[in-house]
Write a structure and sequence with these properties.
- The chain is of the alpha/beta class.
- It has two domains: 140 residues, Alpha-Beta Complex (Quinone Oxidoreductase, Chain A, domain 1); 142 residues, NAD(P)-binding Rossmann-like Domain (Rossmann fold), CATH 3.40.50.
- 29% of the residues lie in helices and 27% in strands.
- The protein contains nine helices and 15 strands.
- Helix 9 links the parallel strand 14 and strand 15.
- Helix 1 packs across helix 9, helix 2 packs across helix 3 and helix 2 crosses helix 7.
- The two termini are 13 Å apart.
- The relative contact order is 0.16.
Length: 328
């Protein structure tokens, strides 16, 4: 099978597109013919070796994939079933999606809703699925369109693009924050954003524990000072769903928004989410994500382009979603 393989021998890191024997795949109960994978931020970190994402060598990266079951020892899936995988430490501990085959545990797989093609399921991928988990968290904590605006940070990226599109379709007023407002303003408005702010407005250390309220909820992919400023400006009884660390892993803030305004900080762990919640997220995506907008935010590349795209996503130069045709 054809695969993108990461190796690290005596601190010599390499990225190669090569032929790998199928019997080198890890042991698991289900074999999948991978049609498409994607490039997420975590993949970018792994492929550029800019963060210790990979914990077992050699490694096929790719934290998600979509394809067709070739064989399974589980009663949950049959040959020919269309499935998607998001998370479960693939591409980190277990060989991931940037190969023509993947062998994984059946419990890690989710059936693709009939509303989506296999390509569209890949285009949604971990980023879109994570965005939907964030929106479910906002809803669980009582944030509705009547509550006020919702902020999305990193809005031009994969998680952000899907979050903006779904929130707008649900009737929310969406404020989109991006470091590329001038270049991507028309794109963000086409997804449904009604207000744009530059990420620099949120990038400095918090000067006041409570700022003027600006939004009832937020989807944050950044962390660090960005998340601290988002919390400080969240309205009473609001909720912030945090799912990323593009700005940093640190969080220097105060408890003031939490105990004086009753703000909820909801952490989103998309990697180890339960099967029931995954199914809920994918079913909601099938009803709440406009596939025309999904197509507009998606580009496709072949396996050879992955190293370059990985560097671009780490540098924040990627718009929306990038699907990888693993055979292309």
């Amino acid at each position: 099978m054809r695969a993108l393989l990461l190796t690290n021998v005596d601190d010599e890191f390499s990225v190669d597109i090569t032929e790998v024997a199928e019997d080198q795949l890890p042991e698991a109960d289900t074999l999948v013919a991978v049609e498409y994978s994607t490039i997420n931020y975590k993949d970018g970190l792994a492929i550029t070796n800019s963060s210790p994402i990979v914990r077992s060598w050699p490694m096929v990266p790719g934290v998600d994939f979509a394809g067709t079951v070739l064989s399974s020892e589980s009663d949950d899936f049959s040959v020919g079933d269309r499935v998607v995988l998001n998370g479960w430490d693939v591409g980190e501990k277990h060989w991931g999606g940037l190969a023509e085959r993947a062998r994984v545990d059946a419990g890690w797989l989710t059936s693709i809703p009939e509303e989506f093609s296999t390509y569209q399921a890949a285009a949604i991928g971990t980023a879109g699925y994570t965005a939907m988990l964030c929106i479910l968290a906002l809803e669980d904590h009582g944030v509705t369109p009547d509550s006020g605006a919702v902020l999305v940070t990193g809005a031009a990226g994969g998680v952000g693009s899907v979050a903006v599109a779904v929130l707008a379709r649900l009737g929310f007023e969406v404020i989109a924050s991006s470091g590329r407002v001038e270049e991507e303003g028309d794109y963000l408005r086409s997804l449904g954003a009604t207000e744009l702010i530059h990420r620099s407005e949120l990038a400095e250390p918090v000067s006041r524990p409570l700022a003027k309220t600006r939004w009832a909820g937020a989807v944050d992919v950044a962390g660090s000072h960005t998340l601290a400023n988002v919390l400080a400006a969240t309205a009473p009884k609001g909720c912030v769903a945090a799912c990323g660390l593009a700005h940093g892993m640190d969080l220097t803030t105060s408890v003031a928004p939490l105990i004086l305004r009753g703000v909820t900080l909801a952490g989103i762990d998309s990697v180890h989410e339960t099967a029931e919640r995954r199914d809920e997220a994918w079913k909601r995506l099938a009803t709440d994500l406009d596939v025309n907008l999904l197509d507009a935010m998606t580009t496709e590349v072949g396996l050879e382009a992955v190293p370059e795209v990985a560097a671009d996503i780490v540098e924040g130069r990627i718009r929306g979603r990038v699907v990888v045709d693993v055979a292309g």
